[in-house]
Automatic annotation (TrEMBL):
Keywords: ATP-binding, Ligase, Nucleotide-binding, Nucleus. Residues 729-750, 784-857 are annotated as: Disordered. Belongs to the ATP-dependent DNA ligase family. Residues 798-809 have a biased composition (Polar residues). This is ATP-dependent DNA ligase family profile domain-containing protein.
Amino acid sequence: MYSGSRLATCSEHHALYVAMSATSQAPRGVPFSFFVSLLREISLHSCPRKTGTRRDKHNASYPALDILKKWTARLRSQFSPLAPGTTAIVFRLLFPGEDARRKYDMQETRLAVALADCFGIPAKTKQLRQWGMDGSSGCLGEEVMQVLNSSSSHASDYISPHSIVDVDALLDELASHSGFSDASVRARHPHATRRPKALIIRDLYRSLSPLDASFLTQIILKDLRPLLYPLTDTHYTVALKSFNSAAVTELTKEDAMRVWDPGHRMLAIYRVRSRLDDASATFEAGITGTVMPQIGIPVEIPKSEKGRSCLHAMKMLKASQEIWAETKYDGERAQIHLQVRSDGSSSITIFSKSKRDSSLDRHGIHGLIREALCLPKGRRSEHADYSSKVKTNVILDAEMVAWHKGKIDEFWRIRSLVEHTAVGVRHNRVQDATPVDNYSQTSLMTDVSDDRDLGLVFFDILLLNDESLLSVPYSSRRTRLESVIKPITGQVILAERQPIALNIASNDRNPGIHRVFAQCLACPEEGLVLKAGEAGYNDWRFPWVKLKRDYIPGYGDCVDLVVLGVSWDKERARELRVAPNAYTTFYIGGLHNAEQLRREPTARPHFHIYFSCSYGLSRDHLEEVNFLIKNSDTVPCNPSSGLPFTFDILPGLVPPTRLLREPLLAELFGAGFTKSPGSGHYELRFPRITKIFRTGERSWRDGINLQTLHQVARDSLCKDRSDKDLNDWGNTLWGKPVSPGASSKRKAVTDELEEKLIADDRKAAKKRGWTEFDARILSTWARSGTAGPAHPRPQPLASRTNLGNSQIPSVPLGAAPQTTPLDSLSKARVYPSPGSPPLAADQDPARKPPSTAAKHQDSISAVLADALVFVAAQNPIARQRWKLMIPSERVAPSLESLLVGCGWGLENTPPPSPGMQRGVIVLDDGDESAQMRVNKAVNQRKALCGDRSGTKAVVILQREKC
């Protein structure tokens, strides 16, 4: 990428600096050109490995790290002792993306115009602005160097008079113009005395060589990757098929810290004080002993591992003796620092996940934090009684969520609530969504409503009253957290958590991971975070393990939508290491006028393009799609393109580079559904493309339209339609039954998901060979030393029942399948058909002698014979065996299905099958909550159905454990 220009190496820069050191032109301190020599050397030696090249694990190639070691030694040899602050400056310049203090509000387009003006080359503005177009480098820094090489008067061995201190100070001044920069940066350059951006940029660039200017450009853009790790081949086919994303080993800040400080002291500090400035300052201060968390400095957030299945997630914590599954809430991360002043008042600092100080953005939750900690809003009153456990300070981990009617609302609601309550640059007026059709929920029409508020879910505590809790086990930290936080109904809660059974085969009363995760998916929640009870905060021995639906193949939300446009996206392209001639991003839309097309087949389709997707396809599939599109008929993106369809694009969405004349169908999956600001339609969250079909395989007409997508999203989110409350009120007013809510199928969905999760893990374990750990997590039969699952022998079912207020003798079942329930049945309750006298179902068996009919029952098989059965038992293995006993056509997937099958439906219910004599519900004995729910549901339905004829009785059987 640097052909045609002579660029000095590290040793050449060293010699040149020595020659210049006696002149007035030499910079004071470490020259910026000397720093750039490090970057230049890394770029020259970053040779990507081709796909299929065998890597030597014992001698892995890491040229960037080797070069940094040599450069650091030369730096300390030439410029020792290093001036205070050198560590922070070097790391800020080497890892500009980690510099959370400085924001420049300048991306490529704006910076290109500013640089063309700075260098007085307006004729080159177009070349700079087209940095990302097909045929260009895809890197503004590279384009700047090419332009300056043709116009610069500097000699090839020129060294800039700027030192790294000078450049760092000018970057601070430039960042002071952004309201998103840290307050400390803006305070150094008050608005009244702040120079214009153009003058600052001129001072930064005018004395730099083309090479120095190119790297400085990428530092301002906070991304050195395209210059540090240049592409060796720009053709998309070679780039995608001959290389992969791991072709180059990129330098990490952790490895750089190990080089800078071989004693690893700086790295240890960074885990506690995780901003580069603060970690560097603490390191240079030479503080010994344990470093304490400090109010106002973010603590490093633990990096979570991804669980690719329930079994895989548990294996990452198999050394733990106590595992908790904590609900992962769909919110924005907030690390809350609170300091109590001497007068009782308190100051709050809130850091986002990116470590940016977002205290003003989240001003709307400051009062909530104090209330949850039982602290006064202002100074402490002498007569007030505050029971707060926080005496001096506290650091808390929380998720900021949106609350609505006592429940956590959808994630996309947070943004507008923050903008509505923020102080400063993020404060914004309420934004209305684009108009939507009548099938969309009315709540989608606005991002903010009067009955929605920001709330908090607390899940960890890191510091309390000057005591660091980072090394305290998670179980103990949670206990401390519970003693500190006062839940507030509908606003503040503690994250729900559940202990996980570590051995299903034992009498562990805790649920298995599959059950807990299935409940999480059915709710639906974002996912789970598995945590070891004995783990400290950010403990490498016991990492946090995320378990989300989209991490496991086949469990994410999947839809078929239409691809209408394509473009090159710089972020995704740099991950894939492809030039701008490759399409990395696909623009997704839905059919907007499906009803019109049904009425008028000759009408033109109208598509609404409202989100894009850059992930999911393999490199080979992406290359095939690129070839397909490049050899098809595409047009520039404008309304007058002469397309056979019409379209509109969501305002704020960057338009595609090219539009497809013939749309393609794509299969996408994601982690639930969300909504972009100002949009009236649901889209997949974290969308990924599974496949893009050729027109000969499947047509775009096979995709779902926006109306159907809305229904799919609503079902996935367990949301009722917006007018359901009104309809239910009207039905109640006129004495009609209300329709079941979206959550009525949750129990059945949970059971089905649990069984599927277990079946998938069992299949994977069987394929690779069963282990003792697999048996503990998956099997109710396998004990230590068992190689794998084995079916038990059939066993008789002892039964005690008041079926018909009678007793059934205990006899074996005849003709049982190979897998038979291990548990016995007890306590059967009969709900007669609604036409029967209701008293028969509610009589006390002690007051009425057993009926003659029940005495002559000779087997539980008489109960199951000719019955529709809903297995509501909790144990998944036993539940599966029950289903194996019963023909599939007589297994009801849910309680609602069973009631409808027995003729107890609410509206327009078909009559029961003539061959079906009763309904049977199987429950666990002792599961009182399930008993209460079922009894309540059946009694309510019986009352609603009244004296309807032709219905069948429902029997509740309870399994008694052996």
